[in-house]
User: What shape does this take?
Amino acid sequence: MSRLEGLKANSSQFTLEGEPFQILGGSIHYFRVPRAYWKDRLLKMKACGLNTLTTYVPWNLHEPERGMFNFQDQLDIKTYVTLAAELGLWVILRPGPYICAEWDLGGLPSWLLQDQDIQLRTTHPGFEDAVSLYFDKLVSIIRPLMFEEGGPIIAVQIENEYGSYAVDDKYMQFITDCLQSRGINELLLTSDNWEGLRYKGMEGVLKTINLQRLSFGAIQQLADMQPEKPLMVMEYWSGWFDVWGEHHHVFHAEDMLAVVSEILERGVSINLYMFHGGTSFGFMNGAMDFGSYKSQVTSYDYDAPLSEAGDCTTKYQLLRNLFSHYHAERLPEVPSPQERKAYSPVFIQHHLSLWDSLHFTEKPCRSERPVNMENLPVNSNNGQSYGYTLYETTITSGGALNSRNNIKDRALVFVDRHCVGTLDSKIHELVLPDGKGKRTLSFLVENCGRVNFGKALDEQRKGIVGDIVLNHAPLRGFTIFCLDMKPSFIKRLVNSGPWKTDIHSMCTPGFFQTRLFVDDAPRDTFIKLPGWGKGVVFVNGQNLGRHWFIGPQHFLYLPAPWLKSGENQIVVFEEQKADDKILFDVNPDHGKTIDVYKLPFCTLL
Assistant: This one.
């Protein structure tokens, strides 16, 4: 059959190729799933009875430095979307430029914050210009994948949940024009939670809603806004995300199924967010701040139908049974689960103090006043995006140290390399011990993740963002080291660092190295670090993410494709407390749980 027309919203039901079409969608983010597992996850989506894949596009990964684009390897969106088509899935693309997604700065590049006057998600000239150049590149890649070009993309979302932000009446039209003027002619959508729906719509753009509970007549409200238009829940939240220091969120399968069943019975289209959460590898997790700052964990398991490691959960089985009733033909067989292995513990062989690693960073910056991460003269003057920054100055006395809340987000404080305390968003004061002569005062500052939702996006600069005072006098004369811990830095460290072998002299903060020997085909596993404190784990140069003893996450997912037969190098950067071994398990440990239905409804908006 020749293609008649793409996805249309001209009546109370979607049509695709001229036939009635109910979207049974699910979100899987290519940037959160190892490329080698894209096919496995999409086959499991197809076998669950879904017909449409949705994915965000993270601007900050695709343009890590201004004008430097990356659409290769893990970020090869063209291959990902083409693979979905080959497996018989349609695609709804959500290119942002802002995506939220519990992703650092909602997917916006940190170099935008170099401009002190920038107004993100507005028609501010600096933001407009950057978006336009990015969309020039992005649309050149995605346009051939559109339905009218023979591709699988049947709809494109404009921005994300702008109704909850809504600070510029001209902004959404600007993003719409960015897409249409570059040749995007498919159906355009917006996506908002119940409160955000109140924001005015745009001609020819279909509104969709995000929710988890059928409360406040939200779907009826959407229907009243758009009479004789199809209804869609663009994000049906199948679970929820986690933050450090709190419990793991779960959403019981039976509660989820009841709502999904009712949505489908009403003839409403649905997209499960997430169908498979995956992992916010590296330093890419976001944060929330509604009065207090809370950093999100590395795992994006989300209590989704497919677990972080791609397992089919009870939710998956229940949904597969439900969705099977919406297909005339029998669903495909579910692919076999990935094999996992609990490797034997490995013991630390070498260690290197943070102070001995500084020779392998970029040339330090010297500045009279503190400079925030984003404005450091590193990475071709694009600043530092992620990781840690070390600030050092000289003091001649002890006394009362006050950060004035200018530490973003957390700092270990050292006097002559001895840790004397921690400063963060809640602890602003510290007493420094007295001493004789000049001493070195150091702040090891961690960017724990930029806020990804809310009104505070413009205030997400990291590092030290203003004066810190000692006995009411501002500190001056800083030497600043960029510790963004990119693969090139880890490689230099491993190959050339003055590593020590005496484990009895291990000190923190520092780097700890060992080898995992795999004697057959690699298998998925989970790294566990009992006895360790807080830091980051690298395997064969890949940054698996952050670990922190406060939980709820007590593991790091290590996918088999990132291991190799033979020797595998493991490096742990540890801030506070190192152990002599690393453990492996076949199962994750999410810590204590809390049912999202027990949370106030407002917290899920």
